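Submission sheet (multi-component)
Chains listed below:
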Amino acid sequence: DAGITQSPRHKVTETGTPVTLRCHQTENHRYMYWYRQDPGHGLRLIHYSYGVKDTDKGEVSDGYSVSRSKTEDFLLTLESATSSQTSVYFCAISEGTSGGGNEQFFGPGTRLTVL
Amino acid sequence: GEDVEQSLFLSVREGDSSVINCTYTDSSSTYLYWYKQEPGAGLQLLTYIFSNMDMKQDQRLTVLLNKKDKHLSLRIADTQTGDSAIYFCAPYSGAGSYQLTFGKGTKLSVIP
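Outcome: structure written.
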């Protein structure tokens, strides 16, 4: 299994509080991604990174920010959590287009509940 | 952008074959991935097919690609209870984009 960890694995927080989720990889992969998974929506991309300090928005980026100061860490921040951000969050990594493909490897997920 | 469609549910008896279907819209998709998600876990890369192939076999898994109709299928032979999971189709077109677009997933239930 790819060396990807996410912390925390579970979190319950209140509306309006800031929340930071961490993704850590030991594979030295260039690309990192944050997805959210909701019933009826499948996986939707929030933000991704293509290198240290290089990030871009995904499909559902409103209300989220990210930072990547080191190759191995990708942080997802909810500045002021809302109930609509209750979800399961997955981090993924990939080497990108080496060989033409983009196989992504996923972490175990963080279940976030915003009350 | 890419649209990916999958049936939401599939139920099969243990020992039978399962066929999970996927349609996509981006004809420039070069790699087409299948992922498996077991309950409470992340997604696991199962297999993939390159767009210049019609079929790829990997043990009990067979991937069929109809590029003209933009239709992808995953066949699982001799389905076992351990195959119960959600299966996601994810085409990738490259061309400067590093994003995979996932279907909503097909939940496979295996009846003992």
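Remark: Chain A touches chain B at residues 31, 33, 40-43, 45, 48, 50, 58, 90, 92, 94, 96-97, 100-109 (CB under 8 Å).
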